[in-house]
Design goal:
By secondary structure, the protein is mostly helical. The chain has one domain (4-385). It is built from 22 helices and no strands. The chain has helices at residues 4-9, 12-21, 23-26, 36-47, 66-72, 81-91, 95-120, 126-138, 140-148, 152-168, 171-181, 189-202, 205-225, 236-239, 249-256, 261-282, 290-302, 315-325, 330-358, 362-365, 367-372, 375-385. Helix 6 crosses helix 7 (95-120) and helix 12 (189-202) runs antiparallel to helix 17 (290-302).
Amino acid sequence: MIPPVTQRLRPYIPFLIVLVIEAPLLWPSDLFLGDWHNFWYAGHLVATGRSPYEVANYAGLEGPFHELEVERTSLPWPYPPWTGLFLAPFGALPLEVGLVAMHATLVVLGLAAILQLARQVRLGGAWTGALALTIAAASQPFVLATRTAHFDAALLSGVLFLAAGWQRESAWRFALGASLLALKPHLFVLLVVVTLVAVVARRRWRLLIAATAALATLAAVGIAVSPMPAALADAQSWLRIDIGRVATVWAAGAMIAPDLWGPAGLALLAIPALLAVRALRASPPARSALFVFVATALSLVIVPYVHSYDHFVLLPLVWLVVRAAEDRHGWPRKAMLVAAVVVGVVLPWFAYFADFNARSEGPSGMVPLVTLLLLPAVVGTATVALSVRRATVGEDAPDPERPRPLRS
């Protein structure tokens, strides 16, 4: 007889082993690898009362910071003012201390987001739980984002809080989710539209008021601290980027038909979009929070600027595939578990290295599309796992799903 505590910890053993193995990747020896110095310096400017949007603040930089001076002459700081508030505490610290603190924070945020997902989309089997956690730890977006300073873990938490807020009609969760997603708002254009339509259709005014108040406060403080020059309202200056440098369906379309990348991208999008519509008709916002995860995936496909590390927010859909496999037996169960491993680990890593060979992020642009192809397998499970429970006035609804006993 296995003690209950030991039984609960068993799924985390492979997860921890993978984290130990990949620790050198998550925490490289070079503190200037990726965008660490870029984000630290932006936070430093905000912390010292200067603006990351002013090109003059990058003049005369030396060493690894010199590339920022060159870059800012053609590409302004491409984040909204409130993102600088998140970076300012690290920029207020000395360089090396600030970089270490930022890195440690991103590692903690990444692990916290994965554990938040484990709590929100509960798995009943010890083996399937271990598999899902291992997929999360070994995923290319988790490793790359943590390695190169990108805060996609906060975005995953934002998606999860938004979904939980919708499920439980919890205003604070919904507002917190919206605030976290605002750190990289350009990734979630379609999600904003779909969520707003759902809120109005279901008349969930508490959620709308809470999210609006939180975002307005965040924007007001951010703009007061680092006002964005009016010239940056013309985003053409920083969206004028080679289409092959972004992991979108348009980059994938450009690999197929360089001169007709738009129609080619739409052709690639057709079937996943159709499956998404059918999934949301079967499990609409009135019944579940699946629309949050589906709209997130579609947003990543169509926005003009996204990289493969941003695909970390696709993890809930992969997790739902594992959850759906628990309700099946025989070869369908095995096939779904294999599909989860392929889409969650094998495909993103394969596409990442294929990007180098193709000199384009088009291969990575296919990852959200392939993930959406799995929607028919998870609709029924999502309706249960992400079911909407109405809250009583002034209270959050109970947890949408009680813990299921672990099965060996």
